Amino acid sequence: MTAPFPALLPTYNRTPLSFIRGEGSWLVEASGARYLDLTSGIAVNALGHAHPALVEVLHEQAQALWHVSNLYRIPAQEALAQALVDQTFAETAFFTNSGTEAAELAIKMVRKYWSDKGDARTTILTFEGAFHGRSTGAIAAAGSEKMTKGFGPLMPGFKTLPWGDHDALRAALDDTVAAVMIEPVQGEGGIRPLPDQCLRGLRDLCDQTGALLVLDEVQCGMGRTGKLFAHEWAGITPDIMMVAKGIGGGFPLGAVLATAHAASGMGAGTHGSTYGGNPLACAVGAKVVEIITADGFLDAVNRKSALMRQKLEGLVASHPDLFEDVRGQGLMLGLKCRAPNTDIVKAAQAAFVLTVPAADNVIRLLPALTITEEEITEAVTRLENAAQSLH
Ligand SMILES: *Cc1c(COP(=O)(O)O)cnc(C)c1O
C-alpha cells in the first residue's frame, strides 16, 4: 500500500519542533525546553512573542469588533494609515493581509499609473535573488527558476537583472521602463544590502526616466534595520513601498504605502480586499507602529545591533572554517557560511538557538527588536557551542 497523501499539503520541509508558548525572545516546547528565538517567525514578531501591550490591544479589540469588511469606515484602519503617513514619505496607504498581496497591489498600481497616462510602459525591472512572495505575479517578478518552474506561463512584464550590476541596470533603465522593484536589503536572497549610494543612484535614474521606484520593505522595514524603513539610511524616498511581516507583530497585516502621485489611478473600485485592514489587524498594527516609533526605540535597536555584530565578528574569527563574514544592518543580520548553512542551523537548534537559512549559503539572524543585551550575549554563546559541536 502506498502512503496516503499528507493531510497537510507537503510544500514545506519542516523542522520537527513545535512550540506551545512564546515569551519575548523565547519559544517553549511542551517538554519545557526553551529556545532562544533569532527567527521571530521570519522577521514578523518584531516586538517578540506575547508583548503585553499587543496582547492587551488585541484582547480589547476582540471584545469590541473583529470584522466588518471595507463596506464601512474602519476608524482603526484610518488611524493606522494616518500614523504611517505621518511617519513616512507616503501620502496614502492600503492594507493587505500579507506581503504577497502588497506586491500584487504595487504591480497593479504601477500598471494603472502608466495606463492612465496613456503611456504603454509595462516593464518592471527586478533583481536576481529577489523575493516578493508566492503569487503568480510575485514569482514572475522574482523570476528565479526555483520559484517559477512548473508554474508557467508566467505573468509578463518583468525583466530580472543581475544583483549589483550597474552597467546592466543603466542599460535596461530607459524611458520605456514603468518601474523598478527592489528590496533595500534582500532577505530570502541572503541578507544582501543594497549600498546606500546604489539606492541613491537608482532613485536618480528613476527620476531621469520617469520610472516609479517600488521598494519591497516587507522584511527589512518596520525598524528591522534600525530605521523605521531601510531606505531612510540612504536619504531617499520611493514612490511605492510594500510593507508586511513586522507591522502586524504576528497578526497578519500588510500595506502598500505610496505618494499621491503614484497612487493617483487607484480610485473607487480599482482594488479591494475582504479582510485587508480589518479592526483586529489595524488595532495591533497601530500599537506596533506606536511602539517602534516611540522615542529611543530605534536607538536601542542600533545599540543592540552593534553589540550583536561585534560578538558575531568574534564568532566568525574563531571559526573561519565554518563562517566567512557577517552582513546586514540593524537586527537583520546574516552569517555567510563556508560549511553548509543548513548544518549550522541544525547545530544551533541542538544548542537551543533558532536561526533561519537563506539563499547564498547564509543563515539569517532576525531577533525580536526587543531582545535584551543579555539575550544577545546568550544567543552568540549558544551559536559558539553549536560551532564547537561541528568540529
Ligand atoms: C516575506 C516576503 C514577502 C512575502 O510576504 P508574505 O507575507 O509571505 O506574503 C515579500 N517580500 C519580501 C521581501 C519578503 O521577505
UniProtKB/TrEMBL annotation:
* Enzyme Commission (EC) number: 2.6.1.11
Which is an annotated GO molecular function term of this record?
pyridoxal phosphate binding
The answer on whether this UniProt entry bears the keyword Acetylation reads no
Residues annotated as binding N(2)-acetyl-L-ornithine are R134, S273
InterPro entries referenced in this protein's UniProt entry, alphabetically: AcOrn/SuccOrn_fam, Aminotrans_3, Aminotrans_3_PPA_site, Class-III_PLP-dep_AT, PyrdxlP-dep_Trfase, PyrdxlP-dep_Trfase_major, PyrdxlP-dep_Trfase_small
- Kindly tell me the pathway this chain contributes to: Amino-acid biosynthesis; L-arginine biosynthesis; N(2)-acetyl-L-ornithine from L-glutamate: step 4/4
Q: Name one GO cellular component term.
A: cytoplasm
Cofactor names from the entry are: pyridoxal 5'-phosphate
Q: How is the cofactor bound?
A: Binds 1 pyridoxal phosphate per subunit.
UniProtKB keywords: Amino-acid biosynthesis, Aminotransferase, Arginine biosynthesis, Cytoplasm, Pyridoxal phosphate, Transferase
Where does this one sit in the cell? Cytoplasm
* Gene Ontology terms: biological process: L-arginine biosynthetic process
Gene3D superfamilies xrefs:
Aspartate Aminotransferase, domain 1, Type I PLP-dependent aspartate aminotransferase-like (Major domain)
Q: Which residues carry this modification: N6-(pyridoxal phosphate)lysine?
A: K245
Chain sites annotated for binding pyridoxal 5'-phosphate: G99, T100, F131, D216, E217, V218, Q219, T274
* Subunit (UniProt): Homodimer.
Miscellaneous comment text of the record:
May also have succinyldiaminopimelate aminotransferase activity, thus carrying out the corresponding step in lysine biosynthesis.
Concerning PANTHER family, the annotation shows: AMINOTRANSFERASE CLASS III (PTHR11986), SUCCINYLORNITHINE TRANSAMINASE (PTHR11986:SF113)
Into which family does the record put it?
A: Belongs to the class-III pyridoxal-phosphate-dependent aminotransferase family. ArgD subfamily.
* Designated name of the protein: Acetylornithine aminotransferase
Please report the organism this UniProt entry assigns to the protein: Roseinatronobacter bogoriensis subsp. barguzinensis
Q: What is the lineage of its organism?
A: Bacteria, Pseudomonadati, Pseudomonadota, Alphaproteobacteria, Rhodobacterales
